[in-house]
Amino acid sequence: MFGIRAISLVSLGVLGVVALPVRAEQVTKTAQQGTVKAELSYEKVATDGIPQTRNVWLKIQRAGQSAFDQAPTVNEFDRPMVEFLGDDKNDRGFLVRDLNGDQDSEVIADMFTGGAHCCRYSLIYQYDRDQKQYVESRANWGNLGYQLRDLDRDGKTEFYSADDRFAYAFTSYAASAFPIQVLRFEDGKMVDVTRQYPKEVYSDAYQLWRFYQRLKAGDGEAKGALAAYLADKYLLGQQEDGWNQLRKVYQESDREEFFGSLRKFLKETGYVK
User: Fold this and answer.
1) Residues 197, 189: contact at Cβ < 8 Å?
2) 258 Cβ partners below 8 Å, 6+ apart?
3) In this structure, are residues 76 and 42 in contact, taking their beta carbons and an 8 Å threshold?
4) Residue 17 pLDDT > 90
5) CA distance 8 to 116
């Protein structure tokens, strides 16, 4: 899927196996908005067939003047998402964007830790006028990603995603479902603003109920879809209707145990206010 090119590490010679030095491919990506320009550089290598990224470095300039010139907070196995998204200019991965409508652009560098499902995260750099440099923040997406949207059309960008805490919570990953999550970057941190968008939450709840019906028709594991659906109903302030729906459709032998675990989980994750 990701099209990572493997690099041969050994060569068979007359006298036996001779190890070749690891070859590194230098990659540089640039992004710009207005007077803010960012450059992300790194080396692609493969050690024993395992792709790795070395010497990741980020430079940010403001009106031609350096404001950040150092390594971002990543480890040797974390790889920039641009590694997988290709060269399409519309791909995320690495971009400069004014996230909060203050006419001062932030820099977003998306990273991937590797693994079948996990994990993705974003490093976000916001300019601190007192320090006169960019400060790094981190947003964790887990198994999921995000889309950048301006839902209010007010010049402020929302991170449109889903709640990864529901992965494996009640069923396998394949049968898990995730309620909508809308976040906004404010004052150097992510703020959950999902409840401010009932139209989007209602649409998500509808899709989750459709997902449940498909699972039920195929004798699939339905608890993941029902859990995410009920979370959306809490976001809408319609929790009683949501519980009535669950009590009506879920009649399995573990019914009371599932309902008790679900109620506790929704409280722990902040859906129950």
Assistant:
1) no
2) 170, 223, 250, 252
3) no
4) no
5) 23
Whether 146 and 159 have beta carbons less than 8 Å apart is answered as: yes
The answer to whether residues 22 and 7 touch, using CB atoms and an 8 Å cutoff, is yes
Query: Residue 96 and residue 139: Cα distance in Å, rounded?
Result: 16
Nearest to 205 by CA among 175, 248, 235, 244: 235
pTM for the full predicted model: 0.85
The first and second tokens of residue 105, run together, are: 């652009």
Listed in sequence order, the residues at least 6 apart from 205 whose beta carbon sits closer than 8 Å to its beta carbon are: 229, 232, 233, 236
Q: What is the pLDDT of residues 70-99, one digit of tens each?
A: 999 998 788 898 877 655 555 569 999 999
Hey, what amino acid is at 272? V
Count of Cβ atoms closer than 10 Å to residue 200 Cβ: 18
Could you list the beta-strand ranges (E) of the chain: 10-13, 16-19, 25-33, 36-47, 50-62, 65-70, 79-80, 94-97, 106-112, 120-128, 133-142, 147-149, 158-162, 180-186, 189-192
Q: Are 144 and 122 spatial neighbours (Cβ–Cβ below 8 Å)?
A: no
